[in-house]
Amino acid sequence: MQVETPIYDVLGAPLTFSPQAARSLARRLRLRRALSNDGKSSVSVDLAEIRHTPRPPGNVVLAAKIVALQAETARLEATTAGHRADFERERADRLMVELLQATAETTAAKEAAAQL
Protein backbone atom coordinates (compact mmCIF):
# COMPACT_ATOMS: atom_id res chain seq x y z
CA MET A 1 0.00 0.00 0.00
CA GLN A 2 2.21 2.72 -1.35
CA VAL A 3 0.61 6.14 -1.32
CA GLU A 4 1.81 8.43 -4.10
CA THR A 5 1.14 12.08 -4.72
CA PRO A 6 1.17 12.50 -8.50
CA ILE A 7 -0.23 15.39 -10.45
CA TYR A 8 -3.22 14.75 -12.69
CA ASP A 9 -1.08 14.08 -15.80
CA VAL A 10 0.86 11.37 -13.97
CA LEU A 11 -2.26 9.94 -12.30
CA GLY A 12 -3.99 9.43 -15.64
CA ALA A 13 -1.06 7.77 -17.40
CA PRO A 14 -1.10 4.28 -15.79
CA LEU A 15 -4.89 4.21 -15.80
CA THR A 16 -5.01 5.25 -19.50
CA PHE A 17 -7.15 8.35 -19.30
CA SER A 18 -6.74 12.08 -19.69
CA PRO A 19 -5.68 14.58 -17.01
CA GLN A 20 -9.23 15.97 -17.00
CA ALA A 21 -10.60 12.49 -16.30
CA ALA A 22 -7.99 12.04 -13.55
CA ARG A 23 -9.11 15.31 -11.99
CA SER A 24 -12.73 14.20 -12.17
CA LEU A 25 -11.83 10.83 -10.62
CA ALA A 26 -9.97 12.56 -7.79
CA ARG A 27 -13.00 14.70 -7.06
CA ARG A 28 -15.42 11.77 -7.29
CA LEU A 29 -13.31 9.59 -4.95
CA ARG A 30 -12.71 12.60 -2.69
CA LEU A 31 -8.98 12.07 -2.74
CA ARG A 32 -6.84 14.46 -0.75
CA ARG A 33 -5.41 17.14 -3.00
CA ALA A 34 -2.62 19.58 -2.34
CA LEU A 35 -1.27 22.53 -4.29
CA SER A 36 2.44 22.28 -5.01
CA ASN A 37 4.91 25.18 -5.21
CA ASP A 38 4.69 25.31 -9.01
CA GLY A 39 0.90 25.75 -8.89
CA LYS A 40 -0.04 22.20 -9.91
CA SER A 41 -2.39 20.08 -7.84
CA SER A 42 -1.08 16.79 -6.53
CA VAL A 43 -3.26 13.96 -5.27
CA SER A 44 -2.61 11.50 -2.44
CA VAL A 45 -3.63 8.14 -3.85
CA ASP A 46 -2.86 4.43 -3.70
CA LEU A 47 -2.96 3.36 -7.35
CA ALA A 48 -3.56 -0.28 -6.37
CA GLU A 49 -6.90 0.61 -4.77
CA ILE A 50 -8.29 2.36 -7.83
CA ARG A 51 -10.30 -0.05 -9.94
CA HIS A 52 -10.64 1.47 -13.35
CA THR A 53 -12.04 -0.33 -16.38
CA PRO A 54 -11.76 1.84 -19.47
CA ARG A 55 -14.89 2.25 -21.54
CA PRO A 56 -14.74 1.81 -25.27
CA PRO A 57 -14.38 5.06 -27.17
CA GLY A 58 -17.63 6.81 -27.98
CA ASN A 59 -17.05 6.37 -31.72
CA VAL A 60 -17.12 2.58 -31.40
CA VAL A 61 -20.41 2.66 -29.53
CA LEU A 62 -21.91 5.10 -32.01
CA ALA A 63 -20.69 3.04 -34.96
CA ALA A 64 -22.39 -0.05 -33.53
CA LYS A 65 -25.64 1.89 -33.07
CA ILE A 66 -25.42 3.23 -36.63
CA VAL A 67 -24.97 -0.29 -38.03
CA ALA A 68 -27.96 -1.54 -36.01
CA LEU A 69 -30.12 1.37 -37.20
CA GLN A 70 -29.08 0.79 -40.83
CA ALA A 71 -30.09 -2.87 -40.54
CA GLU A 72 -33.44 -1.84 -39.04
CA THR A 73 -33.93 0.70 -41.84
CA ALA A 74 -33.24 -1.96 -44.49
CA ARG A 75 -35.74 -4.31 -42.85
CA LEU A 76 -38.40 -1.58 -42.70
CA GLU A 77 -37.79 -0.63 -46.34
CA ALA A 78 -38.31 -4.25 -47.39
CA THR A 79 -41.55 -4.38 -45.40
CA THR A 80 -42.63 -1.08 -46.92
CA ALA A 81 -41.94 -2.37 -50.42
CA GLY A 82 -44.21 -5.35 -49.73
CA HIS A 83 -46.97 -3.09 -48.45
CA ARG A 84 -46.52 -0.77 -51.43
CA ALA A 85 -46.94 -3.71 -53.84
CA ASP A 86 -50.13 -4.79 -52.03
CA PHE A 87 -51.47 -1.23 -52.18
CA GLU A 88 -50.69 -0.92 -55.90
CA ARG A 89 -52.32 -4.29 -56.61
CA GLU A 90 -55.52 -3.27 -54.76
CA ARG A 91 -55.54 0.08 -56.56
CA ALA A 92 -55.13 -1.62 -59.95
CA ASP A 93 -57.98 -4.03 -59.12
CA ARG A 94 -60.28 -1.11 -58.16
CA LEU A 95 -59.41 0.76 -61.35
CA MET A 96 -60.09 -2.37 -63.42
CA VAL A 97 -63.53 -2.75 -61.82
CA GLU A 98 -64.29 0.93 -62.51
CA LEU A 99 -63.11 0.53 -66.12
CA LEU A 100 -65.31 -2.54 -66.64
CA GLN A 101 -68.29 -0.68 -65.17
CA ALA A 102 -67.63 2.33 -67.40
CA THR A 103 -67.32 0.03 -70.43
CA ALA A 104 -70.59 -1.68 -69.56
CA GLU A 105 -72.33 1.68 -69.13
CA THR A 106 -70.90 2.93 -72.43
CA THR A 107 -72.04 -0.21 -74.23
CA ALA A 108 -75.51 0.14 -72.71
CA ALA A 109 -75.61 3.82 -73.72
CA LYS A 110 -74.59 2.96 -77.31
CA GLU A 111 -77.31 0.30 -77.49
CA ALA A 112 -79.88 2.75 -76.13
CA ALA A 113 -78.74 5.34 -78.65
CA ALA A 114 -78.95 2.82 -81.47
CA GLN A 115 -82.55 1.96 -80.54
CA LEU A 116 -83.54 5.61 -80.61
Written account of the structure:
The protein has 116 residues and is mainly α. It folds into 2 domains: 1-54, no CATH class; 56-116. Helix content is 63%, strand content 7%. The protein has helices spanning 8-12, 19-28, 58-115; strands at 32-35, 41-44. A hairpin with a 5-residue loop joins strand 1 and strand 2 (41-44). The relative contact order is 0.09.
**What is the H/E order?**
HHEEH
- Global morphology: rod-shaped
Instruction: State the share of residues found in helices, binned by percent.
Output: 55-70%
Which segments are poorly predicted (pLDDT under 50) over 5 or more consecutive residues? none
How far is the first residue's CA from the last residue's CA? Answer: 116 Å
Whole-number tally of structural domains: 2
Q: Give the helix/strand class.
A: mainly alpha
The major sheet is characterized as: 2 strands, antiparallel
Discrete helix count: 3
Which percent band covers the strand fraction? 5-15%
The largest beta-sheet arranges its strands as 1-2
How would the blueprint of this fold be written?
Elements: H1 8-12, H2 19-28, E1 32-35, E2 41-44, H3 58-115
Antiparallel strand pairs: 1-2
Give a quick summary of the entry.
Helices cover 63% and strands 7% of the residues.
